[in-house]
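So, could you explain this one?
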Amino acid sequence: MKSTKCLPQRISIVLLAVFMLVGAAGFAVLAFSFLPMVGFLVALPMFVLAVYIVRLRLNSQCEIV
């Protein structure tokens, strides 16, 4: 399998995970400043989901990470 066919999947997974990690970090900051309970309740699942997405395998021919 050529790596050029897997490149779009890898880029999309990494970008999605980075956006989710940034969102989780944003909610964590909000949890310390404005919304203590709500921020942590949203930030923790977003962080776990971002880690899951990084480890996700979309195609059996392309191994992500």
